[in-house]
Specification:
alpha/beta, Rossmann fold, Arc Repressor Mutant, subunit A, 3 domains, six-stranded mixed sheet, two-stranded antiparallel ribbon, 12 strands, about 45% helix, about 10% strand, disordered C terminus, Transcriptional regulator FtrA, transcription regulation, sequence-specific DNA binding, DNA-binding, DNA-binding transcription factor activity
Amino acid sequence: MEDCEITNLHNTGETLKASSKTKRQQKRIAALVYDGLCLFEFGCVAEVFGLARPELGEDWLRHGYRFDTFSFDGNSVNTQYHAQIQPSLQADEWHELDTLIIPGWCGAEQPVPQALIAIIQQAHNAGIRLVSICSGVFVLAAAGVLDGKMATTHWRYAEILRAKYPKITVNTDVLYVDNGSVLTSAGSAAGLDLCLHLVRQDYGQQVANTIARRLVIPPVREGSQAQFIEQPLARSNRQAITPLLTHLQANLIKAHTNAELADFMHMSERSLLRHFKAATGTTPAEWLIEQRLQLAKTLLEESQFSLDAVAEQSGLGTAMTLRHHFRHRLNISPSAYRKRFSIQLDKTIS
């Protein structure tokens, strides 16, 4: 599973333009629609990939995502609440897609039509990226494309998924799982996290941040973050960790020990780790790495600093450490990331 980055909103006040690589090819994404369509999950997909987003500039309007809807038989469908959708793609046009998203399914026990299974299998063999949100995992599972892989779904469907498809390793302690060409998310709002993860993969951190800002949601929640906390801390305790997060964010370049952080918060190390885990879903050390990686990605996208300078200014120390974390967590080198996601910024004319 690919790790996901925790970031803070970075509002440049400037219009983004796609990279030269982005300009050469528009990415085509479609959402599967079906009778009983889950409207919340579908809405998440349409909101992230279907809007024009003029705030990203004219190049994005021409070369950003092209969003379509698709039904396996080409017919119109009736949604969960009886609204009707006429798919924009014909039944045989799926092969033109880069990504096919299954936003939920009409029931964990509802059989998946053989015609849809065949399309999913053919799409997988053709290298089309397949994505499920919530119960949509049952469509991918029925097609066999998750056999031998890890997957997630809404926690209340986990046991059903395990029982029906024992070849799949079901993990409900995460928001989403990235297997490369096949990705699955947990329930409901976790679908937004996975959609933003796809945007980061396709167009980089800055574009994902801009979309998240318009959605008024955090640009990144860790993919490994738990779906729910069984015994959440009181709201006052969750808020109490905020000064520490602010302090760390302002001092990424410095080294930090748990003892120093506990002293900063006037609590024991054990209490610190418990509160920190409850607030962020991870440890201080892991959180710092993710924050430093986010800053490093921004520097790679927006500057021409050397790798040594990027490593130093992001708090990762050396170019060797920078390369290690990029390879380990993002499966890409810093130089390749810069080449892929370098963004030209044009100041907005007020």
